[in-house]
Amino acid sequence: MQDMDELLREAEIAHGHLCAGQVLGVRMAMLGCARLGLLDPRRTDRKRLVTFVEIDRCATDAIAVVTGCRLGKRALKFRDWGKMAATFVDVETGRAVRICARESSREAARQLHPEIDNKNQQQMLAYRELPESILFSEQWVHVPLNANEFPGYKAERTLCAVCGEGINYDRYVVRDGKKLCHGCDDPEARYYQSLDSPPAT
Predict the structure, then answer these.
(1) Among 149, 172, 191, which residue terminates a domain?
(2) Which of 2, 36, 37, 159 sits 20 to 30 Å CA-CA off 197?
(3) Looking at the structure, do residues 144 and 163 belong to the same domain, yes or no?
């Protein structure tokens, strides 16, 4: 695996800036891959790794850089739990490890570098230096993956019986014998609201 400084440079480019969350994300992903014995997740091991992230913050971009897992490749899975945590799954062996940033890591950063007033700068430096055991908790876990969760999964495309839009990967709901997209099955649960005309500018 590349060294941390190289990975941090790549994470900064991908994310647009470097921050404490990026440092945590890089170290979290390096640790997860190391625990699974995947030393080159972006190249030789690239089809073996699926990563579940639990937060939509800076660390997630860094995790994607280190692992090579991307949403568009179906190897990065997002669970909106609001936790600075990720689970790394070796789909070849079934082994999985969940890594979570400890709340105490912020205080550990303050204690390590009290001379730095800027909190982000303090954490960025400390998160590079602190031992993994201070930064993270680790837990071996089992992650059941359905066939449609795997990268490269192919399935027949289905049309929604109401809106006519295509649905990939069997992500439809059967209601009264009809295949519906999630938006048509439960319009109240949509993340968007349909408008009859364009909004005023």
Answers:
(1) 149
(2) 159
(3) no
**Would the pTM count as exceeding 0.70?**
yes
Q: What is the token pair recorded at 42? A: 């972006």
Q: How confident is the model over 34-87, as pLDDT tens digits?
A: 999 998 888 876 778 999 999 999 999 999 999 999 988 889 999 999 999 999
Task: Give the number of domains in the chain.
Answer: 2
Domain of 166? 155-201
CA dist 38 to 4, 42, 49, 130, 193, Å? 16, 9, 8, 23, 43
The whole-angstrom separation of Cα 12 and Cα 17 is: 5
Rounded alpha-carbon distances, angstroms, from residue 1 to 27, 38, 45, 111, 134: 12, 9, 11, 30, 22
Number of continuous H segments (helices) and E segments (strands) in the chain? 7, 9
Name the amino acid, one letter, at 115: E
